Amino acid sequence: MRTSWRIFTIFGIEIRIDSSWILIFGLVTWALARHYFPSQYPHWPQEQYWLVGLIASLLLFSSVLAHELTHSLVARSRGEEVRSITLFLFGGVAEISEEPGTPAKEFIIALVGPLSSLVIAALFFGVWQGMQGINEPIAAIARYLSIINGILALFNMIPGFPLDGGRVLRAIAWKWTGDIKRATRIASVAGQVIAFLLIFFGISQILRGFFFDGLWTALIGWFIHSAAVRGYRHTLMKETLKDVRAKDLMDTAFKTIDGSISVQELIEDHILQKKERSFLVTEAGELAGIVCLEDVKTVPPDKRQDTKVRDIMTPKDQLAAVSPEADGNQILAKLASGKIHQVPVIEGGKIKGLVCRADILDFIHLRTDLGV
Ligand SMILES: [Zn+2]
User: Fold this and answer.
1) Distance, CA 209 to ligand 1 centroid (Å)?
2) Beta-bridge mates of residue 85
3) Distance from the CA of 44 to the center of ligand 1, in angstroms?
4) Is residue 68 annotated as part of the catalytic site, yes or no?
5) Which pLDDT tens digit goes with each residue over 315-365?
């Protein structure tokens, strides 16, 4: 898990920054104050470069935030739940609850991002024109932001999934083929082709002596390539898991222990001998809770004889149980939200089985290996 911090909440959406953001923020401010502005406006006093650099860099990240916020607000107006936006090294990621349910929804949610960057570019262009000859630092900041937002809009419209342009392409292909997996594949391949072209171009720039420009281009290409591959796998996984039910995945031969046995007994008879790691705990034949190796570890050795399993188990009411009809994505969401490794499958108050994270992963691997 990466570290990120919440900075504020706007329109009910949590805005977070990833730890890598601090580094890139410092780098951008430094590059603006030491290189960009001094090269464009050589006659300013030293300290002014830093102030202008800092303001420009803050406005740049506000622009990125506005871009992500536009995606999020449009997604929400189309019925999607948006929990948070995390700002990363390259732009941001909005955590939208589901993959958009229809091509039309995906099309509009993706398209508004680059459009918002274009609008911001136009606004700063206006400020630049208005401030020219009146206030040079403000005009300089506005000029920079107008250019950079224009670049952001263009970059995001590159038709390679998962960039916004790639999502627009996927929406069109999805509408056309009626198959989201195929559409994602098309958009992902487009992204990989563009990524290879960028890497190739970057390397040729390096060979012609433009080392940093070339390295930068190649890095962006590499970033797009890995995102395209990951984005495709993620969609494939979600679509595959949509078709499977808890009742097909669950293990019905799970181990059940009584809540009255001691932790010491549990360790000796089950964990050490049979290498079992998680158990359903029953009291008088009814489900009472679940106990895992992690719970056992919290009990110091000298207390193990006197502590009962029922004292350390996660009680039934705190368990993230699923119904036999729950699909793979719902099970995975339960596992993630509770940070647990297994869920009981319950029907009519009775445990029918246990689904472990490993069962889901095996299922995904088998299906993707077989290409079905
Ligand atoms: Zn975007």
Assistant:
1) 33
2) 15, 94
3) 35
4) yes
5) 777 777 888 888 888 888 887 776 666 778 888 877 787 777 777 777 878
CA dihedral 105, 106, 112, 114 (to 10 degrees): -170
C-alpha 26 to ligand 1 mean position (Å): 23
CATH architecture, domain defined by 246-370: Roll (3.10)
Amino acid letter for position 92: G
The catalytically annotated residue of 14, 68, 81, 99 is 68
Distance 219 CA to ligand 1 centre (A): 19
* Nearest partner of 284 among 310, 304, 264, judged by Cα: 310
- Position of tokens 């984005």? 231
Domain residue extents for the chain: 4-242, 246-370
* pLDDT of amino acid 94: 63
Nearest CA-CA partner of 186 in 237, 242, 231, 238: 231
- Using CA atoms, how far apart are residues 355 and 350, in angstroms rounded to an integer? 15
